[in-house]
């Protein structure tokens, strides 16, 4: 668990669910109790003082605001789906990013929210309902089994891929625990390497699968890991395949200073948050393909 000190240090982020209320209303409500600032990068994200406990706040209970970290909130914004698009959230439970996508799309279009784990599907469904995200269709199953040739996916324009990862970017909330060897389970370095390679194997497969959908023009691959194995290495390993399909890396949040580790040409497009500076370690990559003829019918 967290010690009191680190709890106090970490600012609290609140994402306004614009499907239900607007940021002005959220601010005026929250300001009755807290000082509230707006984030300068993610729209509709509010910053509250460290230690603010909102778990039982009426706006949380009724799905008007979501307690979601800053880095995590950047993923859906980086994907940038437009209202009316068809979108897949490949690994979606508990659905924080799914309902964020729905809000960015103003509830218009369709999100297929895929989740493998049965218990987590329940949490996903609850969150989708709570958020009032009526354009989300929850699909219980393996993303790798969604057939890119299936006509029902032929118009999918964007995919968010936020797969299972080591969680090493969130495993330490205390500044004196910043060594990668202090994983969530306290496992040894040796076990970590094997575990990371196994995770990276799945991540690569899932990313290649996402790249295979015929009409997709935007893909975000994100993790809450600090490990190169799950981040830059996974991206690098699919670059050849991606470019053969017309995809290029694009720069998500160009104004953000912390980019990918300089392990290959183009890694400056990648985005990292730093657990020391940003209080969480997160990774975002964005693949973009231009020049596809899309059938605009909405
Ligand atoms: N994007 C979510 C959010 O913001 O709330 C968090 C996703 S979590 C990092 C990864 C999820 O992927 C887990 O719920 C896990 O059960 C699911 N998952 C793992 N393998 C999968 C697969 N092959 N197909 C679909 N979902 C999978």
From TrEMBL:
GO terms for molecular function: RNA binding; RNA methyltransferase activity. Keywords: Methyltransferase, RNA-binding, S-adenosyl-L-methionine, Transferase. S-adenosyl-L-methionine binds at residues 91-97, 115, 142, 162. It comes from the Eukaryota. Transmembrane segments: none annotated. Residues 2-290 form the SAM-dependent MTase RsmB/NOP-type domain. One of its GO terms (biological process) is rRNA base methylation. Coiled coil: none annotated. It catalyses: a cytidine in 25S rRNA + S-adenosyl-L-methionine = a 5-methylcytidine in 25S rRNA + S-adenosyl-L-homocysteine + H(+). The keyword Repeat does not apply. The active site is at residue 224. One of its GO terms (cellular component) is nucleolus. Belongs to the class I-like SAM-binding methyltransferase superfamily. RsmB/NOP family. This is SAM-dependent MTase RsmB/NOP-type domain-containing protein. It comes from Erythranthe guttata.
């Amino acid at each position: 668990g967290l010690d009191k000190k680190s709890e106090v240090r970490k600012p609290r982020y609140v994402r306004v669910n614009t499907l239900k209320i607007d940021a002005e209303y959220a601010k005026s409500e929250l300001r009755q109790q807290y000082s509230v600032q707006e984030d300068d990068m993610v729209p509709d994200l509010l910053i509250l003082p460290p230690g603010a406990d909102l778990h039982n706040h009426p706006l949380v209970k009724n799905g008007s605001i979501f307690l979601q970290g800053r880095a995590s909130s950047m993923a859906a914004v980086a994907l940038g789906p437009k209202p009316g698009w068809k979108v897949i959230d490949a690994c979606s439970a508990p659905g924080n990013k799914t309902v964020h996508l729905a809000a960015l799309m103003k509830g218009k279009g369709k999100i297929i929210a895929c989740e493998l784990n049965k218990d987590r599907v329940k949490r996903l469904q609850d969150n989708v309902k709570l958020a009032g995200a009526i354009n989300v269709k929850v699909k219980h199953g393996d993303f790798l089994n969604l057939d890119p040739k299936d006509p029902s996916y032929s118009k999918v324009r964007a995919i968010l891929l936020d797969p299972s990862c080591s969680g090493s970017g969130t495993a330490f909330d205390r500044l004196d625990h910043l060594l990668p060897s202090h994983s969530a389970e306290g496992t040894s370095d040796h076990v970590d390497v094997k575990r990371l390679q196994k995770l990276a194997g799945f991540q690569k497969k899932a990313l290649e699968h996402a790249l295979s959908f015929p009409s997709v023009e935007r893909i975000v691959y994100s993790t809450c890991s600090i490990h190169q194995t799950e981040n830059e290495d996974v991206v690098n390993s699919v670059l050849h395949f991606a470019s053969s399909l017309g995809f290029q890396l694009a720069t998500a949040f160009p104004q953000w200073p912390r980019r990918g580790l300089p392990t290959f040409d183009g890694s400056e497009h990648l985005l990292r948050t730093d657990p020391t500076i940003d209080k969480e370690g997160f990774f975002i990559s964005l693949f973009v393909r231009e020049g596809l003829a899309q059938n605009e019918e909405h």
